[in-house]
Design a protein that fits this description.
By secondary structure, the chain is mostly helical. It folds into two domains: 96 residues, Alpha-helical ferredoxin (Fumarate Reductase Iron-sulfur Protein, Chain B, domain 2), CATH 1.10.1060.10; 122 residues, no CATH class. It is built from 15 helices and no strands. Helix 5 packs across helix 8 and helix 10 crosses helix 14. It starts with a helix and ends in a 9-residue tail after the last helix. The structure holds iron/sulfur cluster (2 copies).
Amino acid sequence: MGKVYEKLMQDVRFFEGLKACINCGTCTAICPAAEFYIYDPRVITTTVQSQDDEKILELMSSDTIWYCGECMSCKTRCPRGNVPGLIIIALRSLSQDMGLFIKSEKGRQQLAVKRAIGDQILSTGYCVHPGSVDPAMHPEQGPVWEWELENIDPLMEKLGANYNGDGPGALRKISQNDLDELQRIFDVTGGQERYDKIESFSKEKAAEMGLEFGTDTTSEYFQHVYTTNNHKHNHE
Ligand code: SF4
Ligand code: SF4
């Protein structure tokens, strides 16, 4: 048994997710990501089952593990009780811990996810808070978000939200006490440590590429990982 495989086995999601794959391909047939991306959960499961560290390291350094949408459809169909979705989550975590994510285009986008969504969770209590959305980062939305932000108060009132208000209701202000508690959860569960690793490994990659790193979503490196697309991810 390889050392990397042993590390994966310490992750309960991996331990619970990998029983004995018979290579039947049912997970791939049901997987929505496999329809869209050049991606095959069956191959991932059989690769990790080989216990071959070299192949597992290659997998964790590739785009492949970042295509999964974590929908868990594979969990419901596998005839042998494997859960490729959980195996992939464990591979992603280890890839982040070992700094292998910076070796692939989709992996490098972990910095964008961390800064655009992860940081918002800790600062607002929401994954996506309308007040923190930068419309320039979402050209695919056309003028919609810009209009929404300009009209946010009457819009939220019409929707019945308690936008940034005290007390209960959708999009209410999350108290500092609750945000502090959230931070403590991240501290004790290793979430903050993982955030820090994503930042530090990304910083190394930015230096290697000669791009300014910065701390927000406007820096050269952030914009690079956020906008680069080699168009090799999808089926023709
Ligand atoms: S993980 Fe399950 S569904 Fe997928 S190939 Fe293996 S046995 Fe079949
Ligand atoms: S959890 Fe991932 S691998 Fe499983 S069906 Fe969903 S997208 Fe596919």
